[in-house]
Amino acid sequence: MTSISYENDFYAWTQEQANLLRTGKIHQIDWQNIAEEIEDMGRSEKRQLESRLELLVMHLLKWQFQPNLRSRSWQLTIKEQRLRLEKLFQENPSLKSSLDNALEKTYPLATLSAEKETGLSSFPETCPYTLTEILSPEFLPEQGSYSNRHSG
Fold first, then answer.
1. Phi then psi for 101, rounded to 5 degrees?
2. Neighbours of 64 (CB within 10 A)
3. Mean of pLDDT values over 37-50
4. Kind and range of the H or E element at 90?
């Protein structure tokens, strides 16, 4: 099999595996661990989607429910997360099919984060914004107004 242990020196293992692939020495490749690493790379992209969506929704909630505390910083965070999500979708178009599920999973975390940061506890039980609104560069929710939909 391989001369460098996956468990003892991950970096060296990755370099050795890449070299074995490039030189066509497929009989020496650590297939099981390579497969696990590839799966983990995919999970990492999905976690990034969820993390960015959570942060974006949290700031949209703060923007809507604390209008007197709105700041340029919040607005820039909203813009940044939208741009980072757009880049993520450009690099991984298939992640778009995970958006509904990601929003459903992350909305409770976004409200919890918003509660911790604002001290408020009156956020809607389900996401008040559509995915189209969340991802739209122009959308900023107004106080007291929301659609209570989450598809788009």
1. -65, -40
2. 21
3. 94
4. helix 72-91
